[in-house]
């Protein structure tokens, strides 16, 4: 199994590099060029130095050994974006318990910003990607619809790739002695608008903790499925053997459990062990291998930026 996992992860890294190039153009990411420029190092740096020699005072300070920059612990990270350095410092000051690595990837996907404030709207091609980050900070276009949908478990609909993976997941669960089925999948933005309005009316103080605003729900992508077990209810899925099996095995079918107790601060949602999201087997395996617990972290490290080779 270890050999198989290594092969999957190797393929995932290759896919991640390709995806990073595509996403850079779509998301307007500024960091990839800087990372590649720094990585080239050596000859380019020498050429720049010969063409633009440092001023006397700067050269003296460097030769004397200037104290390290307050940003130095960020700049060594390949996913550091230099135009976000002050935001890294501010977020680090507010969260001294976090490592520099955690600070940087979180700020890279705007976790330092309030929910729904100045949310980034994804371009259509990006929104239809299997690793599209839809959250309280990244929204889908108002007229977004998946390119194609296929039926599962009756009237529920998902993308074709999600359908294929889900059917294998369900068979895998059955082979392990568990019964799971879909209770919700694709939702139109209009449907979510009505659903959120209902929750907001019933529970105005807490609705945002468990219901997405229209345009911000993963269910719009056709890659998210809510599961139920023998109880037939979402809450009845909590703490069951089915939920435990899904959490341990979903990655092998290309799914992640999107909202876990560990990620509540990151996602802004209460834990939902029934909510799985299809991101592709390679990406899911890479997350598993590297202990990445959220789609936000994966996107920051493997989609928005090129990992070192």
Structure description:
- By secondary structure, the chain is an alpha+beta fold.
- The chain has a single domain, classed as 2-Layer Sandwich (Muramoyl-pentapeptide Carboxypeptidase, domain 2).
- It has 14 helices and eight strands.
- It has helices at 2-27, 31-40, 42-51, 56-64, 72-75, 85-94, 100-108, 124-127, 160-175, 189-202, 241-249, 264-267, 281-289, 295-303; strands at residues 120-121, 138-139, 150-152, 156-158, 181-184, 224-228, 255-259, 272-278.
- The protein has a four-stranded antiparallel sheet.
- Helix 8 links the parallel strand 1 (120-121) and strand 2 (138-139).
- Helix 1 packs across helix 13 and helix 6 packs across helix 7.
- It is globular and about 60 Å long.
- It starts with a helix and ends in a 6-residue tail after the last helix.
- Mean pLDDT is 85; it is low at 6-22 and 24-64.
Topology:
Blueprint: H1 2-27, H2 31-40, H3 42-51, H4 56-64, H5 72-75, H6 85-94, H7 100-108, E1 120-121, H8 124-127, E2 138-139, E3 150-152, E4 156-158, H9 160-175, E5 181-184, H10 189-202, E6 224-228, H11 241-249, E7 255-259, H12 264-267, E8 272-278, H13 281-289, H14 295-303
Helix pairs in contact: 1-13, 6-7
């Amino acid at each position: 199994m270890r050999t198989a996992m290594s092969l999957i992860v190797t393929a995932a890294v290759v896919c991640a590099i390709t995806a990073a190039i595509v996403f850079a153009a779509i998301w307007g990411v500024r960091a990839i060029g800087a990372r590649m420029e720094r990585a080239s190092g050596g000859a380019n740096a020498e050429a720049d130095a010969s063409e633009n020699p440092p001023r006397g005072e700067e050269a003296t300070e460097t030769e004397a050994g200037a104290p390290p920059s307050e940003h130095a612990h960020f700049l060594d990270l390949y996913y550091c974006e230099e135009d976000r350095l002050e935001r890294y410092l501010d977020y680090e000051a507010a969260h001294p318990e976090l490592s520099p690595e955690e600070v940087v990837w979180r700020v890279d996907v705007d976790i330092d910003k309030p929910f729904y404030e100045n949310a980034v709207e994804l371009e259509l091609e990006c929104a239809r990607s299997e690793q599209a980050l839809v959250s309280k900070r990244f929204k889908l276009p108002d007229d977004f619809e998946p390119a194609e949908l296929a039926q599962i478990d009756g009237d529920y609909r998902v993308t074709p790739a999600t359908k294929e993976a889900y059917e294998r997941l369900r068979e895998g669960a059955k082979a392990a002695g568990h019964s799971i089925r879909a209770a919700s999948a694709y939702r139109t933005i209009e449907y979510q608008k009505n659903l959120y309005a209902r929750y907001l009316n019933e529970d105005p103080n807490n609705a945002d903790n468990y219901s997405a605003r229209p345009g911000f729900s993963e269910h719009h992508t056709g890659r998210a499925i809510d599961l139920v077990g023998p109880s037939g209810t979402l809450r009845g899925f909590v703490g069951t053997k089915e939920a435990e099996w899904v959490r341990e095995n979903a990655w092998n079918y290309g799914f992640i459990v999107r909202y876990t107790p560990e990620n509540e601060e990151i996602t802004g949602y209460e834990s939902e062990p029934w909510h799985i999201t299809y991101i592709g087997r390679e990406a899911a395996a890479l997350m598993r291998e590297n202990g990445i617990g959220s789609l936000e972290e994966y996107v920051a490290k493997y989609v928005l930026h090129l990992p070192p080779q």
